[in-house]
Amino acid sequence: MPNSVLLLDVYPENIKLQVQIPLKEMEFAVPFDVSDTSQLTSGNKALTNYLSQHIGITGKRQLPWAMHLDRILVKNTTQNGTGEFFELIAEYTAVPADHNTRQFTLYYDAVIHQVNSHRALVSIRQDWENGIIDNQGTEIGTVGYNLDTQKATPLNVDLRKGSNWRGFISMVKLGTQHISEGTDHLMFLLVLLLCAPLTYFNGKWILSSDLKSSLLKILKITISFTIGHSLTLILASLEIINFPVKTIEIIIALSILVTAVHVIKPVFPNRENIIALVFGLIHGLAFSTVLSELHLSAYRLLISLLGFNIGIEAMQFLIIILLIPWLLIISRYKIYGVLKNGLAVLAGFSALAWTKERFSGQENFISRYLNAFTENSILFVLFLFLLTMVVFLGSQIKGRGKSLR
C-alpha cells in the first residue's frame, strides 16, 4: 500500500511542509467521507480539524510551532510498486516559537493511528545552506507505529548548521545540471555554433578564411549569449521584470527554428553574435524560473545568482570544448554542408514539435525522443568525433594514393 510522504522546505524564518496522504488509506482512518474529492478543500472543517489534530511540530523546549494551512488539493499520483492512486496534499507554513528551524520534533499520526501498518516517509526537499535543492527530496527518517507505546513515534530532526559556501556550491551544480538537462538550450547552442567555421559571401555560406576568424566568431557568440542570459536572469530573479513562463518557452522553441533556418540560408549574415544576444535574453528568463521557485532571501539570492551563472557558463564552456575542435576540422571538407544542413533540419523539426507541445500543453512523440537525446547527448559528441576521424583519415589516404600515382 502507498505511504504518506512529508516534504520539508527549510528556511531561516519558517519551514514549508507538504503532506501527501493516499486517499485509499485515509478512508480507513477518518470519520467522514473522502470519496467526493471535490469536497476535500481547506473549507472542509472536518478535514482541517482532523489534519490539525494529527500533524504538528515543536521546538527544542517543546514549544509548539504555529501551523498555518496554505492550501489543500487532491492529485492523481504514482508510487513505485503501488500503481496510480489519488492523494490528498496539504501544505503548511510552520513558524517556530524559538526562532530555530534547525532543530525540532515532527509529530505525525494521520492514518497511522487507525492503520498501524501505515508509514510516513519524511524528506528534506530544500535546505539551501546545506546544499539540498532536490524536488524528489532527501529522506531523513520514517514515522511509524510503535507497538510498545501503541502510538506513532515522533521524529526528532537535527539539521547540521550549514553555510553560504554549501549553498553557493549547490547553485553551481544546479546551473550545470540545468544546462546539461535542458534539451532546448543545448540545441540552440549547437545550432548557433554550426555557423562558427563559416562566413557569408555573395548570398551563401562559405568556409571561413582562417582558424583565427572562426575562433573569434565562437568567442563573440559565446560572450553575447552569456551577456544576454545573464542580464535577464538577474532582472527576472530580482523580480524587476516578469514574463509568463509558457510564452517564454514558446519563444525559446521559435529561437531554435529561426537559428536553424539561418544555418541553411543566412537570415542575419555575419551577425550571429546579435542572434545570440537577443535570444540569450529570452533564455535567461527561462533560467530565472529555477531560482524564483526557491524563494530565497535577498542575500542568498545574490549568492545563488552568482553560483548558478557560473554553473551555466562552466557547462557551456565544456560543450564548446567538446564540439568545436571536430566542427572546425570537418568544416574543411565538403561533407560539412550535408552535416550542417541535416542538423539544422533536425533542429527545425524539433523546434516545431516543441512549439506545438508548448501551445497545447500535450507531449508529442518527437519531444519524447528529444528528452531521450539529452540523456544520451554524449553519443552525439562521439558520433561527431568518429565522423571527423573517418573523413580526415579518408582524405589522408586518398591524398597519399594520388601522390603515389
TrEMBL record:
Pfam families per record: HupE_UreJ_2 (PF13795)
Keywords attached to this entry: Membrane, Transmembrane, Transmembrane helix
TM regions (residue ranges): 186-206, 218-238, 250-268, 274-294, 301-329, 335-355, 376-397
Protein name per Swiss-Prot or TrEMBL: HupE / UreJ protein
